[in-house]
Amino acid sequence: MVQIYGTLGPACSDTETLTRLFAAGMERARRMGAETVFLSAVPTEETVAFYFAMGCEDAEEVVPKFVDTPDDRYLRFSLSTESRRDER
């Protein structure tokens, strides 16, 4: 399992920038052979809405070593061709 950590702060509050960063990150993960990306997100309404708009879903399983805080929302993004949304 490849582990990649990253965080996006207030400097990335522009939705267009976030969308491009998300798409680039998912494409890189896909090229590395990943099938699913697990995300731990701050559970604010805007943050969760953004990830859902990108095609993320609530994760059915939690990978303990990726837990930042007990309050985070655990999401997954499928990189499979069949379920991938059109990333812009």
Q: How is this structure best described in words?
A:
The chain has one domain (14-78). Helix content is 31%, strand content 16%. The protein has 2 helices and 3 strands; from the N terminus they run αβαββ.
Low-confidence stretches: none
Q: How many distinct beta strands?
A: 3
Number of domains: 1
**Which structural class is indicated by helix and strand composition?**
alpha+beta
How many helices?
Answer: 2
Q: Trace the largest sheet across and list its strands.
A: 1-3-2
Rg: 12 Å
Distance between the termini: 27 Å
- Profile the largest sheet: 3 strands, antiparallel
Backbone shape: globular
Tell me the strand percentage band.
Answer: 15-25%
Order of helices and strands: HEHEE
Overall pLDDT score: 82
Helix content: 25-40%
Question: Which properties best describe this structure?
Answer:
3-stranded antiparallel beta sheet, 88 residues, alpha+beta, 3 strands, 16% strand, 2 helices
